[in-house]
Amino acid sequence: MSIDPITLSVIQSGLQQVCDEMDLTFSRAAFSPVIAEANDRSDGIYSAVDGSLIAQGLTGLPVFVGTMQYSTRTLIEMIAAGKAAEPKPGDIYIVNDPYLGGTHLMDVRFAMPVYRDGKIFCWLSNTGHWPDTGGAVPGGFSASATSVEQEGLRLPPVRLFKQGKLDTEIYAIICSNIRVSEQRIGDVKAQAAALLVGEQRLARILDRYGDDTVTEAIAELRVRAAEQMRANIKLIPEGTYHSTAYVDSDGVVNEPLEIRLAIKAKDGELDFDFTGSSKPCIGPMNSVLATTLSSVYLAMRHIFPDVPISAGAFEPLKVKRPEGTFLDAQYPRPVSGCAAEVSQRIAEAVFAALVEALPDRVTASPAGSSGNFALGGHDPDRNRGYVMYQISGGGYGGNADHDGLANGCSTIGISKAPPVEIMEQQFPVLYHRYALREGSGGAGHHRGGFGLDYEIELRRGDATASFVMDHGRFGPPGALGGKDGQPNTVTVWRDGIAMTPEHLSKAQDIPLKPGDRVRVRTPGGGGYGDPLTRDPQAVAEDVRLGRYSVADAGALFGVELDQAGRPDLAATERRRGTTC
After folding, report:
1. Nearest-angstrom CA–CA distance, 561 and 528
2. How far from the centroid of its chain's Cα atoms is residue 402's Cα?
3. What is the DSSP string of 493-557?
């Protein structure tokens, strides 16, 4: 290596900062709460040769790490084959086609070439979750879609900005096919602005260190990331590890879908084989290949977070293409649930397979659902339509060191739920509750974290509600003797009568009128280790704080409490001994 370590480190940090500034610009300038408040977006730098990942923002969604790499690669290949227009400086492509390296239709990707001396040095790309892209239901989460056309407008790579100017004809086509189209210009300009900021910041680094030096640093960082990942993989004893994870249903056929995984560890590499997983499904819980691959990558990032984000970190991870399964969706299979839900079941399968091999690094299963809830209707007071999109957190799994985090973000991202005050200001809803779901964490030596419990009332106008969630049939599994977390529950009150969706946490087009309410209780994380070995003082503290009842202390953890709420150690020892 000719580049010195200090310069290499500075350039690495500089590239990271470019992406972080793009993320910040995107969120600050965006109109939609799901981007501006929830940060459901990501930005990155990608190779001009093959689209491989160079750097990504730390606050971007991890699931977009792999998908934007593949979408950029596909765009480069399509340009070379004459299937997409040749780029010019200032051009920005828009694409949301799931089968071209994407996720679902609501995740809209922009890509812009960065030129140096008349040649493309790299690509900048970002993804933002638009609140609506058309389709059968507001928000795009059609729980019973049977083809991708029912989920929304599908865009191949086209130049939305040509030499820096918005193509009004293409934009008009987009706006003519989506709801609340008058609000999209704020997100479009924010998404483009993020790329322009990235171009400016990247130019400063290139001007300071020179294109050749930065190119050398990028190559070296990729090599080092691969070496670091291989070194971590060697901590796993060689062998084959198996697991099975379940999706509640596909939204159409009310039967579980299986994800069967075999991971083979050998010579510093991991081979992932999903053979035996369920066949392609009728409903929207299919996963496109890019999302499946990215789900494996993000799971390993959770396990080895010290490995830098770069294409090199993925090189030792070999995923056999899961042909003939619902994890390799082909057109026209519907895919609205792939990024937000199926991806988390894939990560859960990775955790379950490796927890015994790496008990100090792998947790019990987290909540594993983004809690996608969309509400669309017309607000008579403001005389305008709206699409409200609510995501929600859940409990993290317990681990070898401590209890799981309560109300954490989803496995696939760093997105947070928009503040209640913002949602009530933007949409005709009232939150009756927004609290931790006490007792929802699975019992264990270290218990799972707690989910979220919220309830929304429609205040005015008519609306329709749709859900694409998961873990309603099965709670997040515990690990190494820990118990499962509580499953997701959805209850809808119409005219004061409560109903539970047939598919538990998947439904669409539920008509609501003023006074109707929706209550969602998200899953708690799985417990880690034998609950009968949990510190009695920790159990007593949970009871004191109202997280579990006195009866739960005995039934779940074998802990007897005296009248003052303190552990009766002698009685606890007898009970635990008897229970064991």
Report:
1. 23
2. 23
3. EETTEEE--TTSSEEEEEEE-TT-EEEEEPPPPPPBS-GGGS-HHHHHHHHHTTSS-HHHHHHHH
H-helix segments, 30-89: 33-36, 63-80
Would you give the DSSP letter of residue 487?
P
DSSP code at position 446: B
Round to whole Å and give the CA distance between 361 and 445. 16
- From the list 2, 51, 60, 69, the residue with the least C-alpha distance to 27 is 60
Interatomic CA distance for residues 109 and 477, integer angstroms: 34
**Any alpha helices (H) in 277-429, and if so which ranges?**
289-303, 343-354, 420-426
β pairing state of 463-468 and 257-266 = unpaired
The ranges assigned to domains in the chain are 5-226, 363-529, 536-579
Cβ atoms of 126 and 195 within 8 Å: the answer is yes
DSSP single-letter state for residue 339:
I
Task: Give pLDDT, residue 572.
Answer: 86
Alpha helix segments (H runs only) across 168-210:
168-175, 184-209
Average pLDDT over residues 25-38: 92
For 119-168, the pLDDT digits (tens) are 999 999 999 999 999 999 988 888 999 999 999 999 999 999 999 999 99
Q: Which runs of E-coded beta strand occur in 391-441? A: 429-437
Q: Which tokens go with 269?
A: 């590499």
3-class DSSP state for residue 68?
A: helix
Distances in whole angstroms, Cα of residue 401 to Cα of each of 63, 363, 414, 479, 528: 26, 10, 22, 13, 10
- Which two three-digit tokens encode residue 571? 């009685």
Cross-strand bridge partners of residue 4: none
Place of tokens 């030096």: 213
Residue 216: both structure tokens together: 């050398």
User: How far is the C-alpha of 31 from the C-alpha of 214, rounded, in Å?
Assistant: 35
Query: Cβ neighbours of residue 72 under 8 Å, at least 6 residues apart?
Result: 46, 47, 51, 101, 111, 123, 125
Beta strands in 100-170 (DSSP E): 107-116, 119-129, 158-162, 165-166
CA angle, residues 157, 160, 161, in degrees to nearest 5: 130
The reported pTM is 0.94
Distances (CA, A) of 458 to 222, 424, 494, 514: 51, 10, 11, 5
- Judge contact between 175 and 181, C-beta under 8 A: yes
Q: Which pLDDT tens digit goes with each residue over 377-411?
A: 999 999 999 999 999 999 999 999 999 999 998 88
Structure-token pair, residue 46: 């990608």
Q: Beta-carbon neighbour count of residue 402 at 10 Å?
A: 12
